[in-house]
Amino acid sequence: MRPEVLWAFVAMAAVSYAIRLGGFLVGGTLQRYQRLRAAIDQLPAAILLALVAPQLAHGGMAERLAALIVMAIAWYVDLLLVPLVVGVVAVVLLRATL
Amino acid sequence: MPASKPPAAVAGSARSAFIAGTVRCAPVALGVLVYGLIFGALAQQAGISLGETAFMNAVVYSGSAQFIALGLWSLPPPLLALCLTVFSVNFRFFLMAATMHPVLRAWTSWRALPALFWLTDENWAITMASGEQPHWGAFFLGTGWLVWLAWLAAGILGHSLGAVVSDPRRWGLDFAFTAVFLTLAVALARRRKAPLVWIASVGASLLADRFIGGGSAPVLVGGFAGAIVAALKPRAEESDAP
Question: What does the alpha-carbon distance between residue A17 and residue A72 come to, in Å, rounded to a whole number?
Fold first, then answer.
């Protein structure tokens, strides 16, 4: 193992951890304000949607249809595995047919 | 009608919450395993040794940033470019970590701060979607170690075996994480209906994706937009005051 390579990875790890630490500390300060707490409460859903929306925008019709199927199943089934497997199968089939 | 979900551990111990987190995260760990195999094979091709790859997966522990790092790889390692990559790709963790206080509330800083190392998109999302519970921190750690182990083991395996999974798209596996995030978004949305927040988040993330580009930008802009709408919303009843 080359030391300069390991140091580069340590530096990358430090940056990555510092981001998480910073977010956590800032979040703690913001939580003292009621209005901002309401914002932080809604943040998880907002982040998830912002994560997925561009992925679907880049995808084609097959991905968007599969996404609709996944969301419909997820509304009723509370197991992560079911929408996951159905989504993957659906996207393969839809890509093959569309 | 959606089945009303019982919290993962109603009155159970921290131990059972930890196990519940692990079980809940198992399907996602499988997906991480696939990408870890690919990463290991690519790292081997880039000339990074087996031990170095294992070390990188264990400490850097950032899927997308590591893939981009391979694209920039040279010797001596381009330190600044590598760190900037991690910074721009992983800055979304800033927002995710900001939401972690309710999860880690019961813990002292000595336990809570190191635990943040195990925060990544997938297990953070699962933790949030599981909802508030007595041993939420233990649940989070239960989700975290499995994803971490999957990434580490798959990196080592992929490096030793070479390209086993060359094209995840062919098997629809590139859609696996999209499906996971969609499922968890629905779980969160079901619990708390805030259509204006969702519209703001989706719209802003699409605009950012189009005009700023990839990396963390769409998540940051979308997350902020949703949060701003949530903060501005007039709140008649204060339902979840402690």
Answer: 36
CA distances from B199 to B16, B83, B182, B218 (A): 37, 33, 15, 14
Within a 13 Å sphere around the CA of B21, how many CA atoms are in the beta-carbon half?
33
DSSP B76: S
Selected residues 2-41 of chain A with any CB under 8 Å from a CB in chain B: 2, 4-13, 15-17, 19-24, 26-28, 30-31, 35-36, 38-41
* Structure tokens that stand for B114 in this block: 């190191």
Q: For chain A, what are the domain ranges? A: 1-58, 59-98
Q: Where are the domains of chain B?
A: 14-192, 193-233
Confidence of residue B63 (pLDDT cuts 50, 70, 90): confident
Q: Does B181 touch chain A (CB under 8 A)?
A: yes
Mutate which of B103, B108, B183, B233 to disrupt the A interface (most A C-beta within 10 Å)?
Answer: B183
* B119 contacts B103 by C-beta, under 8 angstroms: no
Spatial separation of the C-alpha atoms in residues A5 and B78, rounded to whole Å = 10
The complex scores an ipTM of 0.87
Gap between the Cα atoms of B25 and B137, Å rounded: 14
pLDDT in tens, B140-165: 999 999 999 999 999 999 999 876 66
| CB neighbour list of residue A8: distance below 8 Å, 6 or more residues apart | B77, B79, B82
